[in-house]
Amino acid sequence: MTTSTQLLDRPERPPLADHHRSLGGRAAAALATPGGAVYVLVLLLLVATIAANPNFGDPGVVIRFLGRTAPIAIAAIGQYYVIVSGEFDLSMGAVVAAQVVMAGNLIGQDDSRILPVMVLMLAVGVLIGVLNGLGTTLLGVPSFIVTLGMMLALGGLVDHLTGGAATGNPADAFREIGRGGIQDVPVVDVIPYPLLILVVLGALASWSMRRPFGRSLVAAGDNADAARVSGSSLWWLKTRAFVISSLSATVAGILLVGYAGVHPSVGQGYEFTAITAVVLGGVLLGGGRGWVLSAAAGAVALELLFVLLTALGVESTWRATVQGLIIIAAVAVAGRAWQRGRRPRRTSPSSRHLTHHQPTPGTTTGDN
Predict the structure, then answer these.
(1) Residue 301 pLDDT more than 90?
(2) Contact between residue 274 and residue 92 where contact means Cβ atoms under 8 Å apart
């Protein structure tokens, strides 16, 4: 056999997969996605806010801002699980209100009731999530309708029990969860408990999305039929997503009692704020694309935007208008960007069986 024949018979090496790029190349590729661009947006909004209000540049002010943002960021993380699976949860705000009223009326000034009532609140959150999940999956009712019905049912129950007015006053030890923190910390003075809870839940969320549950959830949102054929139990996957969403709303409610008090209006509109944060974080409505931590970053970006508008003298009545425009713009941009990323590369017929491109970790599986 001649040398030229040997060279022709030698199999062609497939190109390196995308995740073999340098660390800088992977970082640049991540920032170019909708899920990565939100971190750039957070940085730009932070700089703009400090420019408009120099006092915001104090580390202590920033850390307290993050503590106040923690409840909506936690709610956004919970909403992410539902949206990435291809569904919606419109009952989050009503769940927050119900949990706030429950805490205010059951705990009272008795510190010994704090732990039992918190366990009860979490159990109620699980029950609501299960009902939303089973109604969507086993009964086949669209999640938009199921969670809308749950929102109306819980809202009506809360209004009936409270008469639409503030009621109950939980013990200070319970309220300290939402408004307290670790004191006498160098530079920042205090680290709010809500921020610590957000960090822990964010780490758990990132870990869960790297597990088979998280990957199957994203796959179900991307292509439910393919996920079903692969053996995934869709009803159980999506029901767990709804449970996580309701539990996140419950945690947000516990934190909000600390500084928002006990009123049936607490949590009003939280579901739309959470959805806005999720889409601002680059998560694709319809499911299958997006990063869980980017949803939390979307909440930070949204609250930074509101702080910036306040610093610029824009009236707070424009908040709903801004949220609506953000949803429209973010969904349009994210949808087009993710669609470009999903286009298959053209290969010649002779080399198609040799090339096998692996996706960059985190770009479609919710890892980050």
Answers:
(1) yes
(2) yes
